[in-house]
């Protein structure tokens, strides 16, 4: 552990910032460096911020010079954002990882790579196993753009792991996160004052509490294991129960109309384009098994599926919630468009 | 004379109840006027109501707050309890189910119930086996059942099935449930069983690829074969409509004497008489879990279970006599 040098990509994101904050507190960690195009959102003390785009070939000169023993890839984007529509997302996610892995190949000091990936590799299917284990990836065709991006990420990553057997490669497959301090479209969705749902569907969901999400990432950096590991709470909770716990009135709408409705709400959910992956997730849900996380990485999540939601609900009570668009906002939106 | 007495009794009871409800509504209005939330006001006002009313109100309020048990499979025991009366009616009155051998269902620990599958439009065999266990088993427990995958992609049906203990039929779900020491009902015939024409009733179809035996061996669970008689007559399938099936994406759409001719009325199952026999468990503990990789053994065991159920079906058909009367 002594004198570890760790490079984190996507340092402007919440999870990378939290990870860096935890790592820099540890005196045994010699260097924490963060690479991103935007500066970190969190206030960091001794983390070195390197402004660079992981899509650019400059990375293969930059990375070996830092002499890292571990690279943590948090630059994989989950949600389309206002400035980053679907296409840009694909570009960053797929080309970014290609450049990053190419740079990793040129870095002889490297002993471990940890990627913050997604459980979307399993898909969201009505008749799927209720708890996917790590060996069940790609049982179903990848249906949304995000799922296909995750598929490509994992394929490049598997190739890298095969070519560099000396490097311990860990792919963390995250379920979506929840927490009062994070700002994702799904958290925005759950914070609406009137929540649209898909008529007749009540998905089983698992939300990782944001503190567990960082905890799992840190544990994976400290205790390198090989292969894929699911990051999820124990148990599962249905959407209807989440919304009852949050005390939210629901508006069930026929499922073909749900996607367009979600896009309309997009501005309030802080997302750019259509969030297809969320539409499928909120129709069929997804559950994964977290035994590898608990036994191999040795991280015991503090919150189970119900506890994570309850903590989010309790702590966000004081927060001003985003309302549904009133008639005036809608009229304004129409006027602006025409 | 007796009729007169009964009428007064109901009227009296009705009067009491009406008073209680009026008092409750008055209390609730006062509560809301005093600035309480509707649920709190309702609970306060419920003080004057009979015990059962208050309990029901408390439970409703708890459910509204999301304060209820739901396991990791989405099974909701309170919901299952709430819909039980409908299935008890079907069990006791509509189909007059006679069950035997319930002692063969273990009171605790894992076990796999393997049954024949029938009832073209909507198979009720899992629900009737559940009702039999809930009503007549010395230590009633909630069995879980495997549901055709297609049904789990449908609105309403999927969330209903999940809440009463159904899971999509695949070996991964069955294995995990058995590892958690649940009682799991499987129907190895699958769609081939439900989709066969009426003329082939009570003739068992192929038992899948023996996957259920593999799961039982791997989890070291005993297999309890179950023969269900009566399910074949509820929606006699005379023909099917491949074009309609393609249209809705269903595995098949049956044509019965009443469906689709009579519309929603055609969905009412015919009142056949049922018999369910739970047979003696087949103990697989002599085989190690690795025996699941021995495909010859798997086929042999699968065939053994199938033949046993087939012979029990014929026995119970004779015992039942007339199908409807």
Walkthrough of the structure:
- With 338 residues, chain A is α/β, with parallel strands linked by helices.
- Helices cover 39% and strands 17% of the residues of chain A.
- Chain A is built from twelve helices and 13 strands.
- A seven-stranded parallel β-sheet of chain A has the order 3-2-1-4-5-6-11, sandwiched between helices. Chain A has a two-stranded parallel sheet with strand order 7-10. In chain A, strands 8-13 form a two-stranded parallel ribbon.
- The longest helix of chain A is centred in the N-terminal third of the chain and has 20 residues, at 86-105.
- Chain A starts with a strand and ends with a helix.
- Chain B contains eleven helices and nine strands.
- Classes of the chains: A alpha/beta (338), B alpha/beta (325).
- The A-B interface holds A 125-131, 133, 136, 198-202, 204, 234-238, 240-247, 255, 284, 287, 305 and B 63-66, 68, 70-74, 149-150, 152-156, 158-159, 162, 167-170, 172-173, 176.
Biggest sheet: strand arrangement of chain B = 1-9-6-2-5-3-4
Radius of gyration of chain A from the CA trace?
20 Å
Question: Got a strand count of chain A?
Answer: 13
Task: Give the helix level of chain B as a range of percent.
Answer: 40-55%
* Beta-strand proportion of chain A: 15-25%
Mean pLDDT of chain B: 88
Oligomeric state of the chains present here: heterodimer
Strand order of the largest sheet of chain A: 3-2-1-4-5-6-11
**Number of beta strands of chain B:** 9
On the 0-100 scale, what is the average pLDDT of chain A?
Answer: 88
Pair with the biggest interface: A-B, 32 and 27 residues
* Helix-strand string of chain B: HHHHEEHEHEHEHHEEHEEH
**Broad shape of chain B:** globular
Number of helices of chain B: 11
Radius of gyration of chain B: 24 Å
Mass-distribution shape of chain A:
globular
Helix/strand structural class of chain A:
alpha/beta
Helix tally of chain A? 12
Distance between the termini of chain A: 61 Å
Describe the sheet with the most strands of chain B: 7 strands, mixed
Residue stretches of chain A low in confidence (pLDDT < 50, at least 5 long) are 320-326
